[in-house]
Design brief:
heterodimer, B: 717 residues, alpha/beta, seven-stranded mixed beta sheet, 22 helices, 31% helix, Ubiquitin-like modifier-activating enzyme ATG7 (chain B), Atg7_N_1 (chain B), Ubiquitin-activating_enz (chain B)
């Protein structure tokens, strides 16, 4: 069965397909670009810059220094200076980088408040309503850590990639099942505790837990390879639909329409 | 000034300066043209680079350094584009491998360079004391000269010149900074007669031509990063983009010429770069009217709704023709709250290597927690304070094993110095520590631990008073001081590890733990056998009621009475048929594998105990067959583990507390509580005293028997 991973070349291909889809959609989102990195096995990675995060509030600036200045106002503005600039939202940059250990894409991200101070995602993560936070904590694909960016060598936040292949594998099984009903017996994933909220992740399948039982999920081993091939085209979009909400990256729903 | 976009009306909220009433459509009445100031954005990469630049290249030099800012035309109706400083804004690291390729910058249409000057000061005082008015003045003068010399027409980027003053506090990883974007002030101001979106200012045909011309300008490598250009509407209906130095030529060719520039702002005012360009138009072209296209993008092409066309009326300024005229500049940036203050950014979270190491170390624990041990309590571990009595073979190994469990507070107590024979067994020391008579172990262990990773470690060079080692009158004060100090240490910590090399030295700590109800974990080595145990609760302590005490399934049968300490068990070991009193007699004459094994078990036991809901009162689990699963996340929590290396075997053993124990029985603890250090002193000085107190003659014999054969002084406390 397909284990939900991608080769480096597949990632490169999937990225190009994904950019075609996203960047041509008439939505009010910024565009992904491809950063060439010949030294990497995937030859580069995806970048999305300047996504505004209006819901993340800028904390009161740490005015540890109360520097008094007697500078005259004319140094700062004159009659021709617009002074009532509207406040700017926080901004975030996302990088999707191929992870060579896990053979899956990994999302790295970093944000700035409007005052230029970096957003501490761990704090934001912690400050989530408890049911959301719990879910984030328990879902493998929303496990937030701070890691060194593989190319920039500075700490960036990332979602740990260890759950990615499982969910992608499961997704492909689910989809195949929908496509050819009866082709495979339905998987019986363990449900988590009852009464859990299901808001955090958009897809229903995200409520499933599948730690170790994947090998028992009906295999798509015998599935025609072109169906797995389709999966490669849609891999990044499908995956982003899971991880996006955890990192405040909105994935336009219209994109899914064009998939079918 | 006019506007036409109803959706943007919020941009025109009345301002003290603003022509708020003009908000209706293109007003024909002229009003002051207002510009939206640049907004700076400094990438973390810049500060990282700046830190190493400061440390390795600049050092204490305060000379100005050229930097490059980068910007692109606004490409989003909600967000203006910023003047960014990136890692590559500073000169590249001469030796290092920069993570970004600098050559990529040239011709990158979304990274138009703006030349800047950085004044980084060494002290806060010199930062605050900088002469900001004259810095601004001289930067404006430089722009003025570039305009006059014609340089600005050759390289229009110089019109976007900026200043940055900063103070980098590399101890706290905070950066104080202040930008200035100098603009030459026109007096009187330029006025605007109309301001409309491109889509309304031009016919459809013209718009198509403009779009094509801009597109070509933006995609040609030699022009893409030139932020000012001309649009030439030729008499045959074509539109061409041309460099600004062609102003006269293009005008002579006929048709009409308008100016254009990459506009960073997103609303219905032109952005700041236009200001110096207008100065150029006044000085060089001597025009009184200028039509300007504020070029803004959508998906890489001209956005006809977002881009503006502004008809500007320029003043005649006779003074500007006077030789040696010095223009007035404006443009220090306000902070994000609109105050005339510098900005500050704190980056300890991402730049401080200690914090980074901490997070990296915790990552493994988090992964462990999330994969296998959901109940792993990382905050508890990182806040638990461990006292290690003895920094010898066991102490070193215990400390090393505490770190990966996320323990961050470790205190060593040891009296010895590092000897030549130590480093190969005692994993925190090396040869250097032995030189010149040897460093104090407590000190060397702390230094070594800090080299490994972030930890709050301290070391105390002190001896532990021992029964049977009588105290002369001259020493009384210092011994009593040691006793009190040890008591304070026990009180301050959560877990006490007994790792000394003699049996007697464990007596006082055992008593102090029993009196304070502190968790004590004891490890002792024989030649090829070891003992690891946790002491039971103090005799006078009742377990607090645990609400909803999880009656979880437990994998092993347990003993729920008060558990014994090292001294109880070693003497009577009521439930233990394998009692081996001579376990620790040979001390450092042990098989080398024993200390790491024992130390590792001691730490694992401590961590298990921390995770047990009943903590020090946790009952002693009995052994379970290895074919039976354990239910608890970290497995069973035994009282004692005895290991026999010769047989490659470990036994789980339980020993109940002994009511005549010399260290933890209520008789002894009560006496200690009543008489305090005076009692301790009596124990130290009177060999028969404990025996008298507890009535155990046999025990005295046993205790004396055990004080034989102590090993070389190197390892002595």
């Amino acid at each position: 069965m397909w284990d939900g991973t991608l080769s480096a070349a597949d990632f490169q291909y999937a990225s190009k397909e994904f950019m075609k889809l996203w960047n041509h959609e008439e939505c009010n989102m910024n565009q992904w670009s491809w950063e060439e990195r010949p030294e990497s096995s995937a030859q580069g990675y995806l970048i999305l810059e300047g996504v505004s995060l209006p819901e993340i509030e800028t904390p009161l600036m740490h005015e540890s220094l109360s520097m008094e200045t007697d500078d005259k106002e004319e140094l700062f503005s004159d009659d021709a200076t617009l002074t009532d600039l509207t406040s700017q939202p926080s901004r975030c940059t996302y990088h999707v980088i191929y992870n060579e250990s896990y053979n899956v894409p990994t999302i790295y991200f970093r944000g700035y408040h409007s005052d230029g101070s970096p957003i501490n995602w761990l704090d934001i993560h912690m400050s989530l309503p408890s049911h959301l936070a719990q879910q984030m904590d328990q879902n493998r694909w929303t496990f937030l850590t701070q890691e060194e960016h593989p190319y920039l060598h500075r700490p960036w936040f990332m979602l740990h990639p260890c759950g990615t292949s499982s969910i992608m594998s499961l997704m492909s099984t689910e989809r195949l099942k929908q496509k050819s009903r009866g082709y495979a017996t339905p998987p019986e994933p363990r449900k988590r505790g009852e009464g859990e909220d299901k808001q955090a992740v958009p897809s229903r399948s995200s409520d499933l837990e599948f730690d170790t039982k994947l090998e028992f999920i009906p295999s798509i081993r015998e599935a025609p390879t072109n169906q797995v091939g389709n999966y490669r085209d849609q891999y990044l979009l499908t995956w982003l639909s899971f991880v996006g909400p955890a990192v405040r990256l909105p994935v336009p729903l219209d994109l899914f329409k064009s998939l079918n | 000034m006019g506007l036409t976009e109803p959706s943007d009306s919020e941009a025109l909220t009345p301002s003290g300066h603003g022509p708020d009433e003009a908000s209706e459509v293109r007003s024909s009445a002229s009003s002051t043209l207002m510009f939206a100031p640049w907004q700076s954005a400094v990438d973390e990469g810049f500060w990282h680079r700046m830190a190493s630049f400061k440390l390795e290249t600049q050092r204490l030099d305060e000379h100005p350094v050229p930097v490059s800012g980068f910007f692109a035309p606004c490409s989003h109706p909600q967000i203006p584009s910023h003047l960014q400083l990136l890692e590559e804004s500073l000169p590249p690291d001469p030796g290092g491998s920069s993570s970004t390729s600098h050559s990529a910058v040239i011709g990158n249409r979304n990274k138009c360079p703006a030349p800047g000057t950085l004044y980084n000061t060494n002290t806060l005082e010199s930062f605050t004391g900088m002469d900001r008015p004259s810095l601004l003045k001289s930067a404006a003068l430089q722009i003025w000269e570039d305009i006059h010399s014609g340089k600005a027409e050759e390289d229009s980027n110089v019109l976007n010149r900026f200043l940055l003053i900063s103070f980098a506090d590399l101890k706290k990883w905070s950066f104080l900074y202040w930008f200035a974007f100098p603009a030459i002030v026109l007096t009187p101001s330029a006025t605007v007669s109309s301001c409309t979106p491109v889509s309304m200012a031009f016919s459809e045909e013209e718009s198509t031509g403009i779009r094509g011309a801009c597109s070509e300008w933006r995609s040609t490598e030699t022009t893409a990063s030139s932020p000012f250009f001309l649009l030439h509407f030729t008499s045959d209906g074509a539109v061409n983009a041309r460099p600004i130095r062609d102003w006269k030529v293009a005008n002579e060719e006929g048709g009409k010429v308008i100016s254009a520039y990459y506009d960073p702002y997103n609303r219905t005012y032109p952005g700041w770069p236009l200001r110096n360009f207008l100065a150029l138009a006044v000085v060089r072209w001597e025009v009184t009217e200028l039509r300007v296209l504020c070029y803004r993008e959508k998906r890489g092409f001209l956005d006809p709704e977002l881009s503006l066309v502004v008809d500007v009326e320029l003043p005649k300024i006779p003074e500007w023709k006077v030789q040696g005229f010095i223009p007035k500049g404006v443009g220090w940036e306000l902070n994000s709250r609109g105050k005339a203050r510098p900005r500050i950014v704190h980056l300890a979270a991402s730049m401080d290597p200690e914090r980074a190491a901490n997070q990296a170390a915790d990552l493994n624990l988090k992964l462990m927690r999330w994969r296998l041990l959901p109940s792993l309590n990382i905050p508890l571990l990182s806040s638990t304070k461990c006292l290690l009595l003895g920094a010898g073979t066991l102490g070193c190994h215990v400390a090393r094993n505490l770190l990966p469990w996320g323990i961050r507070h470790i205190t060593f107590v040891d009296y010895g110095k590092v000897a030549m024979s130590n480093p190969c067994r005692q994993s925190l020391y090396n040869l250097e520590d032995c030189l010149n008579g040897g460093k104090p172990k407590a000190e060397a262990a702390v230094a070594s631990l800090k080299r490994i990773g972030p930890v709050e470690a301290r070391g105390l060079c002190m001896s532990i008073p021992m029964p049977g080692h009588s105290v002369g009158p001259a020493e009384v004060d210092s011994v009593l001081a040691d006793c009190s100090r040890l008591k304070e240490l026990v009180d301050e910590h959560d877990i006490v590890f007994l790792l000394t090399d003699t049996r007697e030295s464990r007596w006082l700590p055992t008593l102090l733990c029993a009196a304070a109800n502190k968790v004590a974990i004891n490890a002792a080595l024989g030649f090829d056998s070891f003992l690891v145990m946790r002491h039971g609760a103090g005799p006078a302590f009742l377990e607090p009621e645990i609400s909803n005490s999880t009656e979880d399934e437990i994998s092993a049968p347990t003993y729920d009475g008060r558990l014994g300490c090292y001294f109880c068990n070693d003497i009577v070991a009521p439930l233990d048929s394998t009692a081996n009193r001579t376990l620790d007699q040979q001390c450092t004459v042990t098989r080398p594998g024993l200390a790491p094994l024992g130390a590792a078990l001691a730490v694992e036991m401590a961590v298990s105990l921390l995770h047990h809901p009943r903590r020090i009162f946790a009952p002693a689990a009995q052994a379970v067959a290895i074919t039976d699963a354990t239910v608890e996340a970290l497995g069973i929590l035994p009282h004692q583990v005895r290991g026999f290396l010769a047989h490659y075997t470990q036994l789980v053993v339980t020993g109940a507390a002994f009511d005549k124990c010399t260290a933890c029985s209520s008789i002894v603890v009560d006496e200690f509580k009543k008489r305090g250090m005076e009692f301790v002193l009596e124990v130290l000085n009177r060999p028969n005293y404990l025996e008298d107190l507890t009535g155990l003659t046999e025990m005295l014999a046993a205790t004396q028997g055990l004080t034989l054969d102590w090993d070389d002084e190197d390892d002595e406390m």
